[in-house]
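User: Predict the complex.
Assistant: Input components as received:
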Amino acid sequence: MNIQMIEAAATRASGITRRTPLLSAQALDAIAGRRVLVKPECLQHTGSFKFRGAWSALTALPEDQRAKGVIAFSSGNHAQGVALAAQKLGVPAVILMPSDAPAAKIDGTRSYGAEVVLYDRGRESREKIGAEIAAARDLTLVRPYDDPQVIAGQGTCGLEIAEQATETGVTEADVLICCGGGGLTAGIALALEARAPGLRPRPAEPAGFDDTARSLLSGQRETNAKEAGGLCDAILTPSPGEITFPINARLCGPGIVVTDDEVLQAMALAARHLKVIAEPGGAAALAAALFHGTEIAGDTVICTISGGNLDPDLLIRALSG
Amino acid sequence: MNIQMIEAAATRASGITRRTPLLSAQALDAIAGRRVLVKPECLQHTGSFKFRGAWSALTALPEDQRAKGVIAFSSGNHAQGVALAAQKLGVPAVILMPSDAPAAKIDGTRSYGAEVVLYDRGRESREKIGAEIAAARDLTLVRPYDDPQVIAGQGTCGLEIAEQATETGVTEADVLICCGGGGLTAGIALALEARAPGLRPRPAEPAGFDDTARSLLSGQRETNAKEAGGLCDAILTPSPGEITFPINARLCGPGIVVTDDEVLQAMALAARHLKVIAEPGGAAALAAALFHGTEIAGDTVICTISGGNLDPDLLIRALSG
């Protein structure tokens, strides 16, 4: 993994992925006690950054292999990213999704033309089902984070952050990144290392699913006690990725761990002051920026809103809080 | 009014106003029956396009006059735009707001450091109160739409639409614009005339407050029966502006009139598929794009979401619909 791979992914994505703006609001600065700059990847195609990695991975495949189709597992955002990338490239996509994924994500994935196969998260192995379908139909598996081309695609978000921070006159700041398997974190970290070394990437995770924060402390890949059941469905992974973790261990500052309550408040504040919809997992970094100021250095903090796909009831719950 | 004034406003706004992206979602295309491109000015500073016009007007004032301060009347979006522009320029601002304006807008205006003076919309004349305060303190009145420099500032949104449509390969389309007094419509219309003549500006208004649509038909400035009470608080004006109407009469296609129900649906769809918050008046053009397809020409339609400032209860109502 290197910056050239990220730049190549950016070239392949030119005119396709959306350059999301950098947002801010004085009311958020007042809460955080420092300037807060927000990268709203909820505005990316499919409503999350995952389209970047999916597009990168699919466009990096040899054409004959890609034409046979792709398969992915996902609770929803990677699913939609792969589905739309496949649709735009005119190739088939099969997506394995847990049957308890948010309806908005299942519907969204189907709407991009993918074949959705549901499985029972508690009783069935998605790896086994996926391997069987992939073998039977000669499909290429697109992993959600442990794939160098996926990480390179997510890194294009980091290139934009580096450029936009520079345009805004910010050369030193913590960059808080919503972290599940660590693909977005690793991609951004690599981009910042090369293009904005004064910006320090740091993962933000929900309590109970802080495997990356603990792994950064211990120096090895730690595991969460639970595998599901948290509010932040998009970023609940059992442990840091094999490829992502060494990158993040080398480049990231300490992780920040937020509560579900802080996440709900951050969702409401994003709606009120930034006019964007964050899903719970997408609001973890903003929650860290707003409510964990004592753990953050400097007069400016940058954070991602990594996605905005959620069922309306949950948004109403956050807004009613 | 000419394109040079808009370009000069864009130069003065460089690095200050936000270049909002052009968003889209396949689900909206499917509802509309054509491609829908959305310019989300709810992501502009202060949550609406009004900051563009306010910044343009204040930066066009002679420095000694500006230093004495400015005054504006507004139900909320122009208020916040002028307040933030004044704050950034370090000059005082007094804003007259109706006491029944959304709390979010009154709070927002105060948060930008303006002195807010509330008046009773039914019993008091804002013109009279405003003239008294302006005379007593030697403040410059910044009108919400009938001011060439305000229109020039709103026109910077049209320059961006022209550029972004070109980048997207769109050269012919209707451009639907949420229309109150007609400042945004006139500014965009002038910018498109010069930079993207195949794009046709058209105002979108709520039923009962369709003064511009009726005025475009009759060729003279018509008045609404009611002055307030509609859902779309941001775009309820008694009649088209004196300066804006001749521009819009020359350049706009027919107006489109939407129902409050269509507006609420458009708000919910913007949240669900674009991940942005539209206030009712800000969703009128999207409602027109989605639900008035038979009145629209071409395979692509562009529409503004002109603002996103609203009380959470109303957003919850739209999401629950």
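Residues 3-49+147-320 of chain A form a domain with the Rossmann fold fold (CATH 3.40.50.1100).
Let me know if you want any component modeled separately.
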